[in-house]
Design brief:
DNA ligase i, domain 1; D-amino Acid Aminotransferase, Chain A, domain 1; eight-stranded mixed beta sheet; binds adenosine-5'-triphosphate
Amino acid sequence: MKYWLVAEAYEKIEQTSKRLEMTDYLVDLLKKTPKSAIEKVVYLTQGKLYPDFTGIEIGIAEKLAVKAVAKATGRSEAEIEEDLKNTGDLGETAQKFLEKKRQVTFFPQPLTVERVYETLDKIARASGPGSMDQKINLLAGLLADAKPKEAKYIIRTVTGSLRLGIADMTVLDALAIAYGGGKDSRVILERAYNVSSDLGKVAKNVVEAGIEGLKNFKVSLGEPIRPMAAERLSSPEEILEKLGGRCIAEYKYDGERIQIHKNGGDVILFSRRLENITNQYPDVVSLVRENVVPDKVIMEAECVAVNLETGELRPFQELMHRRRKHGIREAATEYPIALFLFDVLYVDGEDLTVQPYPVRHDVLKKIITRNDRVQIAKYIITDDPKELELFFEEAIENGCEGLVCKSLSESSVYQAGSRGWLWIKYKRDYKSEMTDTVDLVVVGAFHGRGKRAGTYGALLLSAYDAKNDVFPTVCKCGSGFTDEDLEKIPQMMEPYKIPHRHPRVQSKLEADVWFEPKIVLETIGAEITLSPVHTCAMNIIREESGLAIRFPRFTGRYRTDKSAEDATTVEEIIEMYKSQLKTTQT
Ligand code: ATP
């Protein structure tokens, strides 16, 4: 196929801003394209060589492209640079200089799509010493044989500035018209695209097998499925009504969404935007190899930073340490993660995206070995708005963003690539920020795990209720302790150890060790939230809820100058909650 046809189509597409006209030009081009070149033409019109998830980019720096244009046109780099200042578009500059050159030379062999594609592919793959020169030579060779207009588009393609404005959906429309018998067949093409994220592959399939053949298009390992997304509502009542009166509500973990593809020992991880992020999470790769039973699986999980000694979830920001090239292993040790699985889309050859969620959820429960670091997203199945609200508060207090409530109906398939009402997220519309520290009383402790085996993993802390002279709990705190603190605290608490909860302590939680309320620690958290678990201010702001400190951390200050009765009071916590309540729409 002549590249000239592609360049001409680009020119027309570029000159219109109407989507329908754009689609018509694209339909024309696709109809003129032979079967064997359809994939290449589809990728090229999007300025690509492969689907995004492969991570292969043409990307040549403009400076390099200038050298190639100079070489191909017989001009100096300075001349090219000078003209570029005026045009602002190296494509146009290349076109101009080639036009001048062509007046004195005669046209060489016409360029084919195949040659353009293969040369660009070589440019993209060239690496190592000498690769810069190799790229310049390859590009200059192509330009030397190109017509001026072709050169313009080749340059724009390699420098990543093709920008024809053709959206994925326009390509699907054009394919439906050109090869699917009309626009109505787009849904079938769209489904194929949603489960493969690969427009070239979809195009090739429809050209070869027709729209009927495409109906059997299946999920494939190694090709990311476009993610399903949630709608949003702001009350448990509305959510239950929308989901037919009953739903499965899961914690909405605050981490990074990861689509896991396991093929034997090979594990690939894709981000929400379907980039390959396997290198950022070597620990996830090992966890998947060790704890996911079937050989071939595609599943989805939220990857969350955790404190392995206490099991506490950590804020999303801790995952930012993974966004780097070097030192990933160190970051993985310092900021460990856990996986909370929430869907399974494929197991050993079976496409599960067409199955309702209860079926997928059952499969999910069976195929993993659960442990501290690999779990199923915590869930309840309920038809009670009150229960939903309390589960929501619990999720927030435990470091989550809220809940994702999911349909249990027969039609609750995995809607790849779309935001629909089968999933409804329930997040807060406010956030109360904690700016001040509080002084809390140690009333209990929990045994530590891992590095903290033999000492305490977390402490149960209380505020002081002066009116009733009791100590209601307000958080479980496992962060901010140095190794020295961890050694010192058990010794310090030893004299106050008692075999059961102290009568002045109000707690719904069952601690491993109880103490007399004596020792006061300075603590700060991210915010104060409603909590069904902690007894501080129980039933005061809302029925059946107390107040808790989210993401609590010991500041390092032992308030030896304070007695337990000098600790921050329940009234103060209520005031802090109220005054810090800012209305911020999230
Ligand atoms: P948001 O900023 O609210 O996460 P979003 O557009 O990225 O918005 P949505 O589809 O609206 O995503 O909300 C679902 C997101 O919540 C998922 O992308 C996923 O990362 C995260 N998540 C956490 N826990 C779950 C869960 N149990 N089920 C589904 N998604 C979950």
